[in-house]
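Annotators were shown the component list below and the corresponding predicted structure, then asked to write short factual statements about the assembly.
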Amino acid sequence: MPKTIANTPLTPAVLHILLALSAIERHGYGIMKQVEADSQGKVAMGPGTLYGSLSRMIEAGLIRESDKKIDPAIDDERRIYYKITGLGQKALAAELERYREVVAVAKRLSSNTFGYAA
Amino acid sequence: MQHDRSIRRYRTWYATLVRLYPKPYRECFGEGMEQTFGDMLRERQGASRELLGFALWIFVETFAGIIREHLTRISMQTTIKRLSIWAVLVVAILMIPLLAQWPWTRGDFVFAVVVLFGSALLYELIARTSGNAAYRFAVGMAVAAMLLLAWVNGAVGIIGGSDVNVLYAGVIFTLFIGAIIARLKPRGMSYVLFAAALVQFAIPVIALIIGTPDFAPGVVRVFTLNTFWVMAFVGSALLFRQASAANSRPTA
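Structure shown to annotators:
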């Protein structure tokens, strides 16, 4: 199977974008704000990084363009919205499962080594 | 008011910068990027934070993205270009039997296309995993030797028309399985190529021991011909070893 971003451990940017799109579709700025909020400001992306990631995620089939519409909360410009695909949901679920397993191992190790649960 | 003018000016500059992206990328994302940049500036303006330093940071960040997208595109185009060149070469080679009206069947042509283009594809896929010249040359040498082995055996056979030629499939099998086990690492590949050379050398010896009746074109000529592949595999193995030594050499 070719190595794509869909079947390798996801980068923090891709993971956060998938999380931001997991519930509702969003435009570029909306994704950026949601990622910032979700990561408590730890993942800050400029448009170059954000749209570079979106481009690769579209290519990998993780997300797709949705409608072009106005976001009344911002202005009257029509914006392209992005939504997660079925493959994107699967990749996100697999990545979250991987994180759960890592956390379980870390908890077990820390309770064995230091005598307390992480 | 002053800030609104600044936002418009920065957005115009940003639009100019976005034009440096490759055209297909710009057509897909250019407008969205400009809007997002404008939204970010407005947000900062609303929070009464300074704009110039922020805009400059975004310009630098976007410029890095422009370089990244161009590099990605160049590497993709290079691969497509190289495979196209190989395809043209394969077609040119196949024109020879076609124009010379050799008695080739359709099956012969299919075999030739699969072996020639398959070898080219194999070389491109493996050689691109390393930038080391010795490694790439080693891969080229091994693939060319393998191609010639398949070709000569498919056409006439090294040991006359004998069934014992089937044993040469063992060389190709050794190479494929070995490459998978070695995961294409240069050190491992050098052992695989030495093993392939050994198998290659052993085949006419085995044929002699089991007393193959049709040993055309003569024992000495068979061994001489066979030595050509043995040398090619050993040469490739030595190049892989050189690539491995270069990899493990500490850099200053």
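Statements collected:
1. Chain A has one domain: 12-112.
2. The beta strands of chain A are 26-27, 63-70, 78-84.
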